[in-house]
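Reopening this ticket.

The earlier resolution said the output was attached, but the attachment link was broken on my side. Pasting everything inline this time so it's all in one place.
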Amino acid sequence: MAALLALVWAVLPLQMSWTGLAAGLAVSAVTHAFFDRRWPVRWLLEHIGSKGFTELKAGGMNGMYLTDQALHQAALLISALLIALV
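Inline output:
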């Protein structure tokens, strides 16, 4: 991720700060490591009333996987915003 950001920074005239880059990369690393443990995803689904979705594994759908990917996308959005705006 850092290598791609360096390439983008070198090629495109974007305004980014070292602080924003560090914050964005840190948020990405920490959230990805946290969500990949799987227990936080299961805990979240169970505590928002979606225990059935946690157990979904039919029709080509897997509730835990879909939730994990959605959380990763949200974390990447937050990381990108930090990189772009801080």
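Reporter confirms the inline version is readable. The chain has a mean pLDDT of 91. The CA atoms of residues 62 and 86 lie 36 Å apart.
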